[in-house]
Amino acid sequence: MLSQVVELIEKNNDFAITTHIKPDGDGVGSSLGLCWLLRSLGKNAEVIVRGDVPPSYASLPGAEEIRDVSELNGNYDAVFVIECSDIDRPGIAGLEKVFTVNIDHHATSEHFGSINWIDSTASAVGEMIYNLCKAVGGRITKEIAECVYMALVTDTGSFHFPNTSDRTLKVASELIKAGAKPSKIGEAVYYNYPWSRIELMRQVLSTVRRDESGRIAMMRQTLEMRENAEAIDGDNNGFVNIPLAAREIKAAVYMREVAPNKYRASLRSKGDINVARVAEKFGGGGHKNAAGLGVEGDWDELERDIVAALAEAIKASSE
Amino acid sequence: MLSQVVELIEKNNDFAITTHIKPDGDGVGSSLGLCWLLRSLGKNAEVIVRGDVPPSYASLPGAEEIRDVSELNGNYDAVFVIECSDIDRPGIAGLEKVFTVNIDHHATSEHFGSINWIDSTASAVGEMIYNLCKAVGGRITKEIAECVYMALVTDTGSFHFPNTSDRTLKVASELIKAGAKPSKIGEAVYYNYPWSRIELMRQVLSTVRRDESGRIAMMRQTLEMRENAEAIDGDNNGFVNIPLAAREIKAAVYMREVAPNKYRASLRSKGDINVARVAEKFGGGGHKNAAGLGVEGDWDELERDIVAALAEAIKASSE
Predict the structure, then answer these.
(1) How far is the C-alpha of B101 from the C-alpha of A211, rounded, in Å?
(2) ipTM of the complex
(3) Does residue B258 share a domain with residue B180?
(4) Which residue range forms the structural domain that includes residue A258?
(5) Most C-beta atoms within 10 A of its C-beta, which of A285, B67, B113, B163?
């Protein structure tokens, strides 16, 4: 609950903040935003994350101070855990032994924290950090504004995913007033890839096809393409969405060869076509319009099976 | 001035609204938004545009009623002209003879109207229509909200161009409250192309290269590619921005063969690199970060010249 979080902050002084491994913009932005908020209140606070911070978020204020830890080694009154479904998601040993504050906007949270503040109406945890700032009587500094704006932009797909509410944009408006620059943050997210992304996109897009119905698009990425492009993790962010720009396309599958005869597939769909169910058939999972799975075997055969399952899902929908 | 516009509306009954040919989202969205506003005040109003309304905006409420006219043929007390630099931009004969209200957010407007309401601090004319609604004491209906939201989204590049202000997002927030659905509008704009866009993108992207400096990207589109893809106008919207996703790339040129030995080139840049000046050298023009030009001659040679001019522009900048 928010009131418990406010009381905890008021009565204590030393905090750490963490989020899940391979953090996204909401994880990094909300963690840093909270860190700046606590510091502005005169508290000691630091952000600890296991592994690297993706380059898109490296320009956020305070990102350079984030410590890469695999084991808890500070003396904290409490550790905030941002956007994690369970206590293992941060990949930091020792978290289960300390006082934790679970802050999340996913209704599926396991309530693993000593305090649990879950608000599934928030578009991003960033929105909750803004509310927390107001609740503790803090001022939205430029640093808080930039970090929280990043959280909002990335978790709402630049304000056009269905989770975008009037409150999201009201908060974003306040953050701009406080110093966030939409174009600077947009550039950090969307224009900050290495050139290898373009090389990889060229190769992957060369494989794009439609099924017979014309409603399902398929794309492939071989191990060789990744090597040729000298691609790194994240270079293919969003590739699966490219064919969905066509109005005829109702669902898409993008298969990546991860080892000989081993593939990861990303599924996407429009409207009420449920690709989470399709992914589950193959041992995967996800959300209604975005899901993933891992499979082994003959590539053509696997793709055929997935496309057939997607066709079933389209049939079961109103699209 | 806004007060003059309010007075005009209060004292009259029959209005037409028009915008430039090949209208963008701000042109269509603001025109329809204003039309719904006038109707909600009990006035007669219709939108007239020369030529077709692009498919991205066809799902807006009222879009199906837009009349395609080349000559003014109604009996109007006044005609609103939205987002036009001069009286010829709508391509409608007879406009120069009637009472016109010029509403624009470009400081370069020629003040051609009987009334001129220019607000260069507005991110889109849509923002001005919202302000007009407030000024006349109107209610933001669901129809007005959807149309004006479209104007904001398209003119701000989904709220991350530098023109996005705290007021833009405040207005957008109010529009969502009034019934605009960000995901529905985003889908209409970004997921509403024909499949030919994907076919064309595949072919165009197959030509992407960098210059020796690694800072300038080049892409080409032949007449044959357009034919192969069975592409239509607008299918290549935004292609020129694709290579800019790489942080190393500071400027990009995308050349389209429009006839044998005749080419249109789009230029894009980041930061303070001025491609309008580059375009001017070749008889074209535009804005600092987005410009265009037409040239004739040998393709390789022309591309070399443009890349050399872009390299100069990068050198003259702080990038």
Answers:
(1) 51
(2) 0.90
(3) no
(4) 196-315
(5) B113
